[in-house]
Amino acid sequence: MKIIAIQKSALDGMKNELEALLELTENATRKYSPIFKGEQWLDNQEVCLMMSITKRTLQTYKDKGLLPYSRLNRKNYYKRSDVQALLETGHPYNINDDGFTDE
């Protein structure tokens, strides 16, 4: 183990810079938290695992407007609450073009 000795003033300077960086980070996070409102966002893989569906089925849900999503940097994200709502209503497996299920 190495022991490095530095002056107290240098240590205090580093501490102050780290505290300033932490404050900047917290301010940035606070600025965007109203956008998310505590909502958890899931990616394609997480939604497929949660719903036990394939990527193709997920694409069909998106195409039919059954599952809203947001796109960020060419990647789709889904609100956990929207996925939960779709799970609670049941999987619309065989969906016609008119939006009704085949039974």
From TrEMBL:
SUPFAM superfamilies: Putative DNA-binding domain. PANTHER family: HELIX-TURN-HELIX DOMAIN-CONTAINING PROTEIN, PTHR34585. The keyword Coiled coil applies. Residues 4-31 form a coiled coil. This is Helix-turn-helix domain-containing protein. It comes from Sphingobacterium hotanense. It holds the Pfam family HTH_17. Residues 41-89 form the Helix-turn-helix domain. Keywords: Coiled coil. It comes from the Bacteria.
